[in-house]
Model the fold of this input.
Amino acid sequence: MGKSASKHHLQVTEIFKSIQGEGEDSGKPTTFIRLTGCNLRCSWCDTTYAYTKGKLLDIAAIVEKVKKLGCLNICLTGGEPLRQKQTTVLLAELKKLGCRITVETNGTIDISQFNYVDRFVVDYKLPSAKAEQPFYQKNLKHLRPTDELKFVIANRKDYETAKNFIENNNIKTKVIFSPRWHKRTVKAVANWIVKDSLPVRYSLQLHKVIWNGAEKK
Ligand code: SF4
Done:
């Protein structure tokens, strides 16, 4: 570990091991590092507890916790994990440890400033989210084929907006349509995708299926 790791700090809500519930890595054991704070307040946010508080941890302690949990498949999430300046230091230290790193970000921040990330999962916020900040459009050109552009869909208007967006932009990455966790939406989104033969991947929040609507074990 770099000597400097203990001099750098991040505000952390929680670090835990669970099953990745969404996207290409769905079903894989994963260590989640949830950083505190978000620049958005999505209407249906299910991690409001990560907006404030948390614990100030030095990066060496975060890396130690990851070692102790024993799973180097990492998901750095939030809140919005790219808001804290020293996230760059954490990414470097996790990579030194040999981690495979996924970063889940809300789409408003320039991802091109961050190295060592194996997969970005970038959200595009749809009307139902009522996001206060727009999508950072230049991210589209930085998305690699191994990354994911994710649309969380709560209703038909969201679906149409997402569909128009992928039809009108030259998207070179994987596209994920994830329904909000509601019985009717889960079925409806699947039906709409099939009807339109849309070239996207449908992704259910598997952790909520396993743990009955909860985010984790
Ligand atoms: S970006 Fe994520 S953490 Fe932030 S308000 Fe929206 S859903 Fe919640």
